[in-house]
Write a structure and sequence with these properties.
This protein is an alpha+beta fold. Among the domains are: about 15-165, no CATH class; about 340-470, Cupredoxins -  blue copper proteins (Immunoglobulin-like, Sandwich); about 480-615, Immunoglobulin-like, CATH 2.60.40.420. It is about 25% helix and about 30% strand. The strands form 7 sheets. Strands 20, 21, 23, 25, 26, 27 and 29 form a 7-stranded mixed beta sheet that branches. Strands 11-10-13-17-15-16 form a 6-stranded mixed beta sheet, with no helix packed on it. Strands 22-31-30-24-28 form a 5-stranded mixed beta sheet. Bound molecules: CU-O-CU linkage (C2O) and copper (II) ion (2 copies). CU-O-CU linkage binds near residues 252, 405, 546, 548 and 597.
């Protein structure tokens, strides 16, 4: 007669053990992956994450090798503790560390980790308390039973460790001061003193209610006030920050801007905290159409409303009878212009009119430019990005592609009929699909209308069939010493994109030469050099590439050289799969951003820095300083 064998130790089923172990190893991997970041922040935090990761790894191994009730009880208690600590850090904040009692941001890695931990808790409970049934299960059933926990653990561990490994930098300095190595700090690169006439402005950044929404404004309006000054003036602008976040002002396109006034958080300054202020000062020697905007958390602060026009009139005043700025930007419903959807500008027949078109519209992921068309008068494109074109001829209706950040000045004489319109054909494209159906039923939706003069408005031709303005073959050729100089250096700038991990999340990562910011190596230049950039767009998107503090001369597009007027700009609109060659004279020492002005692309990695040798910055970017220039 056989005596029944009582097992000395009852093992929970293999599927349960395997699932519990994987859901413990996953968080362990994520905790180890975030440890380096936390060491940079605060050493005890780093140690905590290493210890948590190591303990979880050991527990996972023990669950497979020597499972016991006591082990699962301990694992459950430990996991509960970690989850509780996590919830505390994201709500009230933990009472220790560099920023005690300040809640931290919720990220991809911690969501993945906490999800696994929460799912593991009931598994631990079952393993500890349920009596296993003493029957053998078919191996296929075991695999099937383990599949959900396995899939969950593998997917979340992949996302969690991937985003943790590509976390937002804690601290990053583009050009640190190296002890023993002489360098000039960006702080010293200010405007030289002089006796130019001073024009003082105060821009108070504050939240204001506009169109039923909370906007971030300069002085309560979107756009901010137009700053209109005269060539040779000394601008003194005080930024007063009444926003809930830190902010800066960047002076987009102003030639010769001293680097200390460039307004880039973490490179040329510490972002101005709430309740503080800062004064920018520089001399404007070049008349033209420029604009200003925040360069802290730029993609969201511009979208919230922190931008405005800066117009430098020539000495002796405007050269036309009427001189207007037409600033295109995102409105509450589609594209707006100067804060309205219906802009009417006064002009009488025979008067000469200048329209300074500025594109501040944040486009979608494809980066599509705005494309205004002037109807009712022949006109000339007299300047791009505030720089005059040579010998511009009169044009009929043509779509002028203006990428985000770019400007175009149009000049025309008011016709006898009395009225002219500017139609933004790209914003018609914005309102395709559902919106165009609504537009057909209820009139234009999301289209800004700009009319000049009172008279019979010109009828619109079929806008889609209109020719596109080509700046490379317009106006009259003239010498451009920067374009023709033998370059001292040439650099490829290859733009690509693919989904991946960046800044602690899953993004359509944008890369320059295979790297995304802040890992794109800076280009080092020396004062006096002529530097060529060979920009290759390997994407199907538009990339208006903007260089701070300098003027780029366009050499060619897709190998075909400029045949008309020299094209000198601060932003080149590189279309899908196009290649542009440009050159700039390194005539303004400093540390300068070079980035796509589709600010989503910039935030997703498409930004780098062009640094003069011998310049350093005391400022850093990253979560520690709070300076996030993109
Ligand atoms: Cu208009 Cu770096 O910006
Ligand atoms: Cu700029
Ligand atoms: Cu881009």
């Amino acid at each position: 007669m056989e005596t029944p064998v009582r097992p000395t130790r009852q093992r929970p089923g293999p599927a349960l053990l395997f699932g519990a172990a994987l859901l413990t190893a996953g968080p362990a991997a994520i905790h180890l992956a975030v440890a380096p970041m936390h060491f940079q922040e605060y050493v005890p935090f780093g140690l905590f994450f290493v210890a948590a990761g190591a303990l979880q790894l050991a527990a996972a191994a023990a669950m497979l090798a020597r499972p016991s009730r006591r082990l699962f009880l301990a694992a459950g208690a430990g996991t509960l503790g970690i989850v509780a600590l996590y919830l505390l850090s994201r709500t009230a904040g933990v009472p220790v560390g560099p920023r005690p009692d300040r809640p931290e941001m919720v990220g991809f890695a911690d969501i993945a980790c906490t999800t696994m931990e929460l799912v593991s808790l009931p598994l631990f409970a079952v393993a500890a308390f349920r009596r296993p049934r003493p029957r053998r299960r078919h191996p296929v059933r075991v695999v099937l039973a383990a599949a959900p926990a396995t899939l969950l653990a593998v997917a979340l561990t992949y996302v969690g460790t991937g985003t943790a490994g590509a976390g937002m930098p804690v601290a990053y300095n583009v050009a640190p001061i190296v002890p023993g190595q002489p360098s000039t700090s960006v702080d010293l690169l200010t405007a030289a003193p002089g006796d130019e006439p001073v024009r003082s402005f105060t821009l108070t950044a504050r939240v204001a209610r506009i169109g039923g929404q909370n906007a971030w404004t300069y002085g309560g309006t979107v756009p901010g006030p137009e700053l209109r000054v005269t060539q040779g003036d000394r601008l003194r602008v005080t930024l007063v920050n009444h926003l809930p976040e830190s902010t800066t002002i960047h002076w987009h396109g102003v030639p010769g801007l001293p680097d200390a006034e460039d307004g880039v958080a973490g490179i040329t300054q510490q972002a101005v905290p709430p309740g503080h202020s800062m004064t920018y000062e520089f001399v404007v020697n070049d008349p033209g159409t420029y604009w200003y905007h925040s360069h802290q958390d730029t993609s969201s602060q511009i979208a919230k409303g922190l931008f405005g026009a800066l117009v430098v009139e020539p000495k002796g005043g405007p050269t036309e009878d009427r001189d207007y700025t037409v600033l295109l930007h995102n409105g509450t419903a589609g594209v707006a212009v100067n804060g309205t959807s219906n802009l009417h500008l006064a002009a009488r027949p025979g008067e000469r009119v200048r329209l300074r078109v500025v594109n501040a519209v944040a486009p979608g992921m494809d980066g599509t430019p705005e494309a205004p068309v002037l109807l009712g008068a022949a006109y000339r494109v007299v300047a791009l990005d505030g720089r005059d074109l040579n010998g511009p001829q009169e044009l009929g209706p043509e779509r002028i592609a203006i990428g985000m950040g770019q400007r175009a000045d149009l000049v025309f004489t008011m016709p006898a009929s009395g009225a002219v319109r500017l139609v933004d054909t790209e914003s018609q494209a914005h309102s395709s699909g559902v919106q165009s159906a609504i537009a057909a039923a209820a009139g234009p939706v999301g289209l800004p209308s700009v009319t000049v003069g009172d008279g019979v408005l010109p009828a619109s031709p079929r806008l889609a069939g209109l020719p596109a303005f080509d700046p490379l073959h317009y106006g009259m050729a003239a010498p451009d010493p920067v374009a023709t100089a033998r370059p001292d250096a040439s650099h490829p700038i290859v733009l690509t994109e693919q989904p991946g991990f960046h800044d602690g999340s899953i993004q359509l990562v944008h890369e320059i030469n295979g790297k995304s910011s802040p890992d794109v190596p800076a280009i080092t230049v020396h004062e006096g050099q002529v530097v060529r950039l060979h920009i290759v767009n390997d994407t199907t998107e538009y990339h208006p590439m903007h260089l701070h503090g300098h003027t780029m001369s366009v050499l060619s597009r897709d190998g075909r050289p400029v045949t008309g007027s020299p094209v000198r700009v601060d932003t080149v609109l590189v279309g899908p799969h196009e290649t542009w060659d440009v050159a700039f004279l390194a005539d303004n020492p400093g540390l300068w951003m070079f980035h796509c002005h589709v600010l989503l692309h910039a935030a997703f990695g498409l930004t780098m820095s062009i640094d003069y040798a011998g310049i350093s910055t005391p400022y850093e970017m990253g979560t520690r300083s709070g300076n996030l220039p993109e």
